[in-house]
Write a structure and sequence with these properties.
339 residues, Alpha-Beta Plaits, six-stranded antiparallel beta sheet, 6 helices, CCHC-type domain-containing protein, Znf_CCHC_sf, Znf_CCHC, nucleic acid binding, zinc
Length: 339
């Protein structure tokens, strides 16, 4: 007797998906423009999924500073293996591995791996070949940045809708003025591969750059950035960025003090923005209205006299005299005529 199929419920319908399976594919896919995958549907002309083959080489784009020299970072977000299995793979392939640790960065699962820098052979091999998995997929790491680097990770939005090659050129021309471009990419729909108008960038804004010293180094990052050859620009956000206006998206002021935005509230006293009627300065300068004088009350009409005179006087009763009650009158019926 064959065992029942667990993929189908007794009612004949497929089992409901878990919340993790439903939400897992709602996050946009990050596509690096500097190192695009060869089988990406957005960057290739062929859109037939049946002809696409899974990538065997995945390059990590994890730009971080390591704990000590010899550290690399692997992006293992696409892998389902646990930490113990990955540790065994690392130790079996690289005997110079001194330690490893997994951690989360947003929706990404990263792995810091430290290879003894004294072993130049395995350091070179791990840098270029990475970690090989049993299914043939190879993940190449990103070398940890020195502590002297100043890494800024940008979230890009309101980007123009252009082809990937045009996006790469425009982002590189603009962002290279604000730092050394380590990586730039776009966000795509995980199901269709459609470009969603947003992306990311990683810049190194350290002063020891290759620009001409006479130029004064890199420019200061701003929230609104220009796009070459287009009137429209795009916007960038990063951690610990200076304040900017949420209405006009210009730097230097906030929404309540924006010169082009409609005031959030007006004073009912002077009809000006920036304060309320209780804090209005023009209200305190006005002459206060004179309060009406209290009515004069004579001595004969004092409150105590008025109160006693308003009460009715009760009659005096002599305690020595007892009250008498009138006797009750009994009525006898009048006899009628005898018959």
């Amino acid at each position: 007797m064959s065992s029942p199929d667990k993929s189908v419920t007794p009612g004949g319908t497929a089992p409901a998906k878990s919340w993790a399976a439903v939400v897992g594919k709602r996050f946009p896919s990050r596509i690096s423009l500097l190192d695009p995958p060869s089988n990406n549907s957005v960057l290739s002309d062929e859109m037939d999924e049946s002809e696409s083959t899974p990538a065997t080489l995945i390059k990590s784009h994890a730009w971080r500073t390591g704990r000590n020299p010899g550290s690399f970072f692997l992006d293992i977000s696409t892998r389902k293996e646990g930490d113990s299995i990955i540790n065994r793979l690392l130790l079996s392939q690289y005997s110079a591995c001194r330690g490893a640790s997994a951690f989360k960065e947003g929706s990404r699962r990263l792995y810091e791996v430290n290879i003894d820098p004294k072993d130049g052979t395995q350091t070179f091999e791990f840098k270029h070949n990475g970690l090989l998995f049993p299914d043939g997929v190879r993940i190449v790491p990103t070398r940890a940045l020195p502590s002297s680097n100043s890494i800024v990770k940008l979230r890009l939005s309101r980007m123009p809708f252009l082809f990937p090659a045009e996006l790469e050129q425009g982002l590189s021309d603009t962002l290279s003025q604000y730092g050394a471009v380590l990586d730039i990419g776009i966000n795509t729909d995980p199901h269709s591969g459609m470009f969603m108008g947003s992306g990311y960038a990683v810049l190194d804004t350290a002063t020891d750059n290759e620009l001409d010293p006479e130029m004064g180094g890199f420019k200061t990052l701003t929230h609104t950035l220009p796009w070459p050859s287009l009137d429209c620009g795009f916007r960038a956000d990063w951690v610990n960025m200076p304040e900017y206006c949420r209405y006009c998206h210009e730097d230097g002021h906030t929404r309540p003090s924006c010169p082009t935005a409609r005031p959030l509230r007006l004073c009912y006293e002077c009809n000006k923005p920036g304060h309320v009627a209780a804090q209005c300065s023009s209200r305190s300068t006005q002459d206060p209205k004179p309060s009406p004088a209290p009515k004069s009350v004579s001595s004969s009409q004092s409150p105590s006299n008025l109160q006693t005179s308003s009460k009715p006087k009760s009659p005096k009763v002599n305690p020595s005299v007892t009250p008498t009650t009138s006797p009750s009158l009994k009525t006898t019926p009048h006899p009628g005529p005898s018959i």
